[in-house]
Structures are given as structure tokens and as C-alpha cells.
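A favour, since you know our C-alpha cells better than I do. Just paste the record in under my message, thanks.
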Amino acid sequence: QDRVGSRTAELWLTLPTGIALSGRSSPYVRVTVQGPAKGSLWDTFSVELPPDATCIDLRRELMAGLPPSARILVQKRQGVLLDLHLHDPVPDRVTVSEFTTQLTGGLIVPRGMARELQRMMLDLLRGRKVQDKISACLEQAQGNEKMLNIVVFGLVMEDVFPRMAEHVELQKAPFFRIFQGAMDVHGKGELDHTFNFLELELLMRNKSRILAAFHELQLMIEGLSAEARAEAEKQLERIQEAWPLVSWQEMREVYSRSRMEEQEAVAQVAAAEATAAAA
């Protein structure tokens, strides 16, 4: 005590083994990388871990990019970084000294967080103020779809994405690229994501992307079991009822034609291969 001074309350060089940290406030741990890999979109990413996870669990989760020699650190008072031991519980935020994997959108925003952001985007776009602004954009575009898409995208960049970025503490990051990358990775092949994708494009009045989402959804519904297909069709009917001015029948006809063309192309390839094999 005499050596460190009578007024010193505590002095840690490393966190003592077994000392408990304050409880996690989120299912996600925010990881900051000291010197991220080349080409990374940002220096921070999130990983979903159980509330009682230790640094062993964190190392196991990050195994692909976290070298055994990498240090896991926690920031204490006055910005001091202290080492965490293997059996220490993982706090809300940590820093790692090394991480070799490139931080892309799909890693920066994990699956659960991506779904949360997509739902948040839906809620924000459904808001009356945003919808009034989009209606004004429709009048401004005067039927010019390209202009409409540009103006609405600008509106979303100004009124929607900043609030989403703030929600996950990515205000200073290239959020649109991160979010887009996350949805590309975590949304593929997921029925609920595709339903949300369709509704998002309806809310933004993007005709070409509405058609793309509708086609993707129809293709997914075709591959479902009879019970799941019936439920999905009911959900699609509810969306169609909510948007009566959309040309749903026309989109169904376009989809049917494109499916027939695809099937004919597959049949032609199969016939050509059979002919070649017979020769």
C-alpha cells in the first residue's frame, strides 16, 4: 500500500482471474480490432454470444480470424486496456489485438442483428411522415421511375439509414454498404426475409425491385411443403390486399412466362446433352 500511495483505491495491471465484470446488456458483443485486415469496411464488428459466455467461447466463435497469440482486452477507467483471462466473462465491448479476417458487412452485422435492422427499416418506412415524403416524391417524379427511385433512395439515406446506423453504433461507418452486405449474406433463402424485402420495396415504390422480390418469393413458395405453401400464400394475399393498386396479376403473368422460358431452356439443354451422349 505504501508503494502505490495511501490514496490509491485500486490498481490492476491485468484483470485478476475470476473477477466478474458487470452483466451484459445485449446478446451481442462489440469487438474492436486494432489494425483490421486490408479491405475491411470498418474496424468494429458484433458477435452474438450467450449471456454467460467466457473468453474461451469468444475465441471459439472467432477461431477463423483470431490468432492464438491475439490478446482480448477490455477498456477500464481513463481508456486503459486490460487483458482478459480465458475464463473471464465477456463484457459488452472488447478489443482484440489481431484479427486476420476481412470485416465485411456479413461479419460486422451478424444474422440476428441484420433481421432486427430489417424490421426497424420496415417500421421507419411505414411511418406517416416518411410515407408523406415518398408521396411527394411520386408527384415530383411525374411518372419517371428512374427519377423516383433516385429521389426516394436519397430520402432513405437521409431519414432512415442514419437512425438504423445509430441503433447499432455505426454512425461513422459506411452503413449502407455494411447493411447491404449483411442482408446479402444473411437473407438468402429465408422466406421471412423475402416477404420483408417485398414489403420494403412496396413502401419505397420501386417497381423493378418489387417485381424482383415477387419473383423470388414465388420461386421460394413453389419449393415449400403443402402446409407451408398454403400459409405463405395467405401471407402474400394479405400483402396484396394492403396494396390494391399494384399490378399483381400482371406480375404473376410475367413470372409464369419467365418460369416457362426457364423450363424450356433446361429441356433444350437436356435434349442436347442426350443427343451428344447418343452420338
